[in-house]
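Loading example: each entry is read as two labelled lines plus one structure line.
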Amino acid sequence: MLKIKILNVGQGSSIIIEHIKDGISHYGVVDSNHVGAGIPRALSELRAVGAKELSFIALTHPHQDHYRGMYDVISAFHGKIRGFYTCPFGDLMVNRDRFKKFGTHLRNLSRTAGGEKQRKAAFEMAQILLWADKSGVAWYECAGDENAIAPFGFAGVDIHTLTPARVSKGNYVARIDSGDPWMFGHIDDNDISLSFRVAYQGFNIVLGGDASASAWGLRKKYEVQSGKSISAKAVNLPHHGSVYDCPPEVLSRLFSGDEDRYGLTSAGGLSHPSIEIIDWMYSNSIDPYCTNLIAECGNNTSQIYPLGTLDKELARTLREAAKLTGVQQVCQGDITIVIDNGSMSVTPQHNHFCAFRKSAPTLFGPIPQPGTPSSPPPSQSTPLPP
Amino acid sequence: MAAASSGALTEAQNVTFRPTFDDAKYRATELVGSATSGRKEETEVFNAPVEKRTLLEPPSHEEASFDVGAPTIVKPDKHVDAVVSAIDKTSAYIDCLVAGDSIEIVLPLVLVPQSLRNFGQPISLSLAEEMGIRTILVEGRSVVPAPDTKEMLEIDAWLSEM
């Protein structure tokens, strides 16, 4: 049996993969995000299921919403983690000068960045890299269009990286080598994000990381040349269902042509996923499952920023420029994919009604397609044509 | 006018509380009065110079029970500390560090001077006005480096070994 649990960690990502064979479970963690107090969700889940060791941890890319709390997981399983798969940082284990330059930049940021959030981001990344360097864990910087990875205990589960292409690490490495202050925290780090295809018992699942449209564009060249397609039944949408990184051209290549398909987004609901992406899935009969509610589905509670200590005009200007003014509200919560005995199921933590699923029209009437005039739901009393 | 204690307090509690009242509230130069003040004489205290307020005597026991817990009004801050958290082609994403609030704003990139467009850059925001047009002024600010911790020293040692 294979279980893939997409945890509701707000605007971020954290996934637990469990492979059970002959009654023995092996675990992997793809990314971590930690919101609020207490221990990270990934760690509490691993403790809840009684995990004693980890076959692997994967860090898709160095953005904080994908590794916040990861060092807590590492510390809890110190010496009991067999593999560490990361995006291509630039062969840091081999190129020690580059490693030192990057590590020193993180160290400086962790002391002198202007905010606690940025200091913690740099500090935790430095801690993770220190562990990867010193602990003896098998660390693989993954790049290439279709690299097979074989974590311990996952025999029978085919896991391949889909992105990034080898060429895409060049820009990242160039930033480190040139001493660019954006060698860490750059918005374009999504270009080197790992994404995975997990194949088991004939089902393909894609874990999209934050892979960008640019990364998928590079992969397309490989697909054209090799004739291979991704063809997944369930996709954890890249970059939290971003309108920029999940264009129809990308999504149509990720999904298979099956009748039942699932688009899963791990996002906070305030900025991601995009309604355009949800609409596209609906019009293509792909059922959306979102960890948190999006504004278009009713998440319209405005957050009030009192800013009582500030000058009134300054406070008003800041409120007007605020990026996110809603309050996060759970939709489906954690989402679990289970593949067993040749069948696959998708089970949300909260089975809230979703108007964008195929089952919705049978309950509430069809949703008008974008660009088409709305029509009333079919009436039971309408006479059938002869 | 601020108050020292509630009428429900025992004498012992009252005695214990008074030094706090004398030392903290009447010494504070930022204090400008009580938010619940409504009476004329209290309005005068509100507008009184700081020096005069520092000389005020603590109120009597009856007055002390008047408005326990009234919020202190401090002078509004015309600057806010902030940090550059991301930039893209057109915008800068800024975390504003306001006590009790966390607010992320988006500014046009042109408002952020080139030299401040760094991840984690400490900045200060205020309002500026030129030719009748109000805009946000983004300036650099200095920070106190984080103190060394055991974990940070481990990272230092690791880097120096490299």
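DSSP finds five helices and five strands in chain B.
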